[in-house]
Amino acid sequence: MMPVTDLMPTTPVSAQACPFRRIALVWAILLACMVPGTTYALANDPVLLDSPAGQFAIDPDTLAISLTTSQGKRLALASPAFSGSRVERLSDHEWQVAAGTARYKVAANIEFGALRVSVRSQGPSVLNWPRTADPGAIRAYAFPFGEGSYVPADDPGWLDWMVRRYEPESVLSILSMPFWTELREGLSVTWLLETPLDTTFDVERREDRARPGFTHRFSSLSPDAAYTLRIVPGPQDPLAGARGYRQWLQASGQFVSLNDKIATTPEVARLGGASHIYLWGSDPLKVADIVQWRAFLEQFRRQRGDDTQLAGRLWKVLDDEKRKTVEKAFKAAARNPGDIEPWLKREVIRALNAALLKVIARPEVTPLPGGHDPGGEVAWARDMSVAMEQAFGPLLAPARGWGGGLSTDLVSALQSAGLRRAWLGVSEWRTALWHPEAIEQAKAAGYLVGVYDSYGSAHPSNLAATWSTAQMGDELANAGYRDQNGQPATGFAGRGVYVSARAAHDYARKRIDAIAQNAGLNSYFLDVDGAGPPREDHTPGRETSESQDSQSVRQRLAYPARAFGLVTGTEGGLSWYAPQFAFAQGMTTQPFAWMDPDMKDSRSPYYRGRYWPDETPSLYFKPVPLKSSIARYVRSPWFRLPLYQIALHDSVVTTHHWEYGSLKFSNEWEATALLQLLYMVPPLYHLADEVLDRDLPVIAAYDRIFRPLHERLFNVAMVDFKVLSTDRALQQSSFADGTRITVNFSSEPMVAQGTTVPALAARVEEPDQPVRVHEMSTVFKAR
């Protein structure tokens, strides 16, 4: 380097007279400050970072990103976020960008072979970045839509589906895990968000190609929060993103295994091999609880006018319509011989159940806002059974078996069918409170027993169209999340509000305490919480960022296990909350009926049903075909990928959403049963006294195949998944213990690795065990 003195003039010269001397002087000062051997970049020079996959280049002016691979091929990765910006370089890998009124500070580095870019904003702003730069170079995508989807980049049907379904919405309501993977020539590129809060995901249509992207909103409620993205090159493998995400979770201390959860909550071990079964028939009595119908109706008829008798008090509260129905039953019983048709018995039982709730007073034991009293329900059930036995004792079955859902009779039926493991859920917690004997019998049989609870929507006390979980009292009905304009977030189905998790914190704990303690449960299901998304709240005095809101949801999800050792599950199963729950319903099959008008049209053969009758709602119990044009995107194995299982199989047990159980779609039974075996995820069923003869034989037949495998593999990592045929009908999963499960989804036999697999069958290879082949046609012969 030339000495500085050699650049200085020997006699005074004005800068105006000699501009070249002035420039030379500036450079002399800059050069004098430089460290020998160091390369310095200008403000608009690309930011270059070397990784094992090649060299990343970031345009600091626009945030456009490219990768030059080790073979010298340049790949455009991220499109420019803005233009006309001004850049101030802070160091080689850190700079500030002024784009319009927005001011960003950006830092980039290589970490574990990935490009890590972190952006902070000096104030509220919106950054539409990153978005795929060259969709034409992408052959296929792997998206964590629920379990996971394989999407060919040139498939027009998938493009249309994604553009229609995935309008800009929170990442944590669309993607079960915050990444997507692009499969390119010779490699994959995964876009992984370390910070998925305040960020939306969407898919644009660009020249008949999908162009996915994230948009981040820097919020005034979280002014210091960074938006951090990882761009991860990997092998040309659709599972690369899921594998990388699992590794990142483990490295960052965010992965909690099922074995870890069992160590703190031992009952979690009961999830192994357990089918998930919702039990219906939540009323106090079922038809079979009256064993002498003619005599019962005759006594009721004689005593209906006597207010000193239970029959008289029940008759008095019946409305005109119910009285007419019961009078029909009186006439039927009076005939010789009495001919009381099954439908008429059901109507009488419905009338009795409604009347009992009015006539037998509920003592006040653990009163809560919203009109709930779990302790009072236990006392009510005891008083009701005493009153009924005193009035009609010899005409009734033993009281411990009453009820058509969670009852000792139904638990005995499951045991007799050979089910050694099951998760039993009830949609109405009063059912559990009314039948403590059934809960004790179920737990003794090795089952988990849980109730459905929810703290999503809150309804005012004067709302007619309401449901029990949303009744939290008027104070919480006025504690909805509010947007920046002060407007409350309307609740589910347009009723009430979505209530602030922070506002509902104390109430939720009190209600969970009262239900869990009085019912003697060993499991708990919290609807909505694991489905997201986190919300902001701009209510004055209760301002809450998405990060703070999600922390409140985490605390609620963790509470049942921490306080009572309950095995906690949730709807959805977002990986964001995975450390806080043990099972999730709604990952194997996510809700999708809103995408197809035929599923909501009662005139259509694809109509999914309604919430009636109460004992067996057709929405859950009536099998219907699933339209092929919908099944292609939501159920078809051809486009399925076990991304969630590769990342989290040994952390969370997942299954279907309860509206899309294993026996719901009549043309999907075999494929669903095979998928459950391939992914090692349990089936989900609905049972009631009325359908035991129809459905329990199928449940038991499948349980004999599934349970022994799942008991052993539910807490074992899935380490690989392969598609073994060009038509994708032959697939294989592998687990860390050496188990391989090969499934043929085709209606014709296929050859896998030199061995023929029958049509619609699973071939199971276990260490030190003979190979087993299970054909689904055998299972469904039981129905």
UniProtKB/TrEMBL annotation:
Per its UniProt record, what InterPro entries does this chain match? GH101-related
- What GO terms are given for molecular function? hydrolase activity
Origin organism lineage: Bacteria, Pseudomonadati, Pseudomonadota, Gammaproteobacteria, Pseudomonadales
Give the region (Disordered) as residue ranges: 526-554
Q: Pfam families, per this entry?
A: Glyco_hydro_129 (PF11308)
Q: Does the keyword Hydrolase apply?
A: yes
Q: What protein name does the entry list?
A: Glycoside hydrolase
Provide the species name: Pseudomonas monachiensis
Q: Does the keyword Hydrolase apply?
A: yes
The entry's keywords = Hydrolase
**Record's compositionally biased regions (Basic and acidic residues):** 534-545
